[in-house]
Amino acid sequence: MTDALPNNTGYVAAAYLVFFALVLIYVVIMAAKLSRFERELSELEELADERIEEREREAVST
Amino acid sequence: MLYGTRLRALSILAAVTLTAGFGLAFFYAPMDADQGFMQKIFYVHVPLAIVALGGFVFGGIMAIQHLRTRDARYDLRSYVAIHLSLVLGAGVLVTGSIWAKASWGHWWVWDEPTLVSFLVVFLLYATYQPLRFSIEDPERQARYASVFAITAGAFVPLNFLAVRLAQAYTHPRVFATTDGGLPGKMQLPFYLCLIGMALLFATLWKYEMASKHTSAQLRSLRRKLGGDDAVAPQGRTAAPSLGTSS
Amino acid sequence: MRRAVGAVLRKELRLELRAPQAVPAMALFSVTTLVVFHFALQRGQVDGDLAAGVLWVTLLFAAMLGTSRLFVADHEEGGLDGFLLAPVDRTALLVAKALALFGFLAAVEVVAVPAFGLLLLGPTPDVGAIASLVVVLVLADGGIAVVGTLVSALAVQTRARDLLVPLLALPLLIPVVIAAAKATTPLFLAGGAEALPGRWLAVLGLYDLVFGLLAYAVFDYLLED
After folding, report:
1. Which among B55, C118, C145, C175 could bridge C101 via Cys, Cβ 3.0 to 4.6 Å?
2. CB–CB of C31/C115 below 8 Å?
3. pTM, rounded to two decimals
4. Is residue B144 part of a domain?
5. Residue B133 lies in a domain
C-alpha cells in the first residue's frame, strides 16, 4: 500500500468525477425537460388565446 | 400536492452540506494509515451506497402505502425513489470498482462484503423497470411493481446479513466502512457527507416528482383546452402516470 | 383454509402424476447439468466447497426451470379465474403452490443428489453427513419454494414471463445459495465429513421465515382483478 501519491490521486479524482458526472447528467436531463415544458406551455397559451378569440367572436355575432 | 415547494432551499442545503463534507474530507480528516490518500474515495462511495439503499427501502415503504391506500401518487413516489437509487447505485458500483482497483489492483474483488451485497441488490432492482414495462394495464402494473418493491425492500437487509456472514468466515479483516470503526477526526466529514448525500437524494427526488407532476398537468391542461384529440396517445410505458384529474 | 389448500395441492399433485412434465424435465436437466459441469470444470471428481457449489448451482437452475411453469397452466386455461370465484382465502393458493413446488423439488433431489454422488462427488458421505444434507435441502427448498411461487405469480401476468422468473428469482435466492453452500461444504470434505455449521441453518431458517411471512402478506394483491 505504499503507492506513490500521484497514482492514487488519479483514482480518487476519478471516483469523485463519476459522482459529479451523475449529478450533472441529472441537471442536463432536467434542463431538457424544462425547455420542453416551456415549449408546451407556450403552445397551450396559444390554444387558450384561440379559445378566447372564438368566444369573443361568438359574443359579437349573437 | 406540489413537489417544488422549498426545493430551492433544499438544494442549497444539500449543496452546502455536501461541499462542506467533501472539503472536510480532504482538508480536515487525517490520512488513513493503511490506504493513504486513496481512502478519500470512501467519503463519496459509502454515503452514496447508504443513501441508495435507503432510497430502495423508502421505495418499498411507498409501495406499502400504495397497496394500502390505492393512491397512484404513492406508486409514483416509489417508482421515482427506486429509479433514482438505481442510478446512484450504478455510481456506487463504479466508485467501488475504482476503489478496488486502487486498493487491490483488480477492478472487482469479492472481499468487500458491502460491495458484493450491493451488486446483488443492484441486479435485483435492475429488473424493476423491465417488470413494469412488461405489464400493460397501468393499474396492475402499479400493483405488481409495489409487490416487487416490498419484496425487494425486505430482501435488502437479509442479503447484507448473509453476505457479511459469508465474508466474515473467510476474511476476518473487514474494512471499517460502518460507523463503528471510524476514528475520531474522520467522523465529522463522513457524517456530513452522509447527510449531504441524503439531502441530495431528496432534492433530486423532488426534482423528478415535480417534473412528472408538471408533465401530467400539462397533458391535462392540453386535453381541457384542445379536446381529447389534441393529446397524443401515451403508448406503453414503464413509468406510472398520475391521473389526469390530479 | 386448510381444506382449500388441501384441495389445490391434491389437484397439483394429481396433474403432475397424470401427465408428468415438470419433475422429469427438472430431474433430467439436473443430471445433464452435472455432465456439463464435468466438462466445464474439466474434473472427474469434486470435493469440499467446489462440490457444494456444483450441487447448489445444479439444483437452483433446475428449480428455475420448474418455477416458470408453476402458474402457466392456471393462467392460460382459466383455473386461476375459477379459483378466484371460489369463496376461499386467496392465500390458500400461495400455500398450496409453494407446497407443490417444494414437493417437486424434493422429487427432483431424490434423483439429482444420488446422481451427483455417483457422477461427481469424490468422498462418499456417511449416514450422518447425508442426514445433515437432508436438513439443509429441506430448509433451502422451503426458501426456493416460497420465493419461486411469489415470483412466478408475479411474472405469469406479464408478457415475458419465462425471462422474468429467473431474472427476478436468482438475486432473491442468493442468500439461500450462500447459506446452503456454506452449510454443505463441510459435508463434502475430502478428509472426512465434518459437523454442519449451525449458523447457516439459522440464516436459512430466518430467510424462510421472513419470505414466508412476506409472501403471505403480499400475495393477495397479485390476484385481484
Report:
1. C145
2. yes
3. 0.85
4. yes
5. yes
CB contact under 8 A, B159 and C174: yes
Range of the domain at B74: 7-229
Q: Is the CB of B131 less than 8 angstroms away from the CB of C159?
A: no
Q: What is the CATH number of the domain that holds B149?
A: 1.20.120
Q: Is residue B235 part of a domain?
A: no
A44, B218 contact by CB (below 8 A):
yes
Q: Which of residues 141-200 of C touch B (CB under 8 A)?
A: 150, 154-155, 157-160, 164, 167-168, 171-172, 174-175, 178-179, 182, 199-200
Read off the pLDDT of residues B53-101 as tens digits, 9 standing for 90 and up: 999 999 999 999 999 998 889 999 999 999 999 999 999 999 988 888 8
- Is B103 inside a domain boundary? yes
**B111: amino acid identity, one letter:** D
> Between B186 and C36, whose confidence is greater?
C36
Tens digits of per-residue pLDDT, B146-201? 999 999 999 998 888 888 777 765 443 334 444 445 677 778 888 999 999 999 99
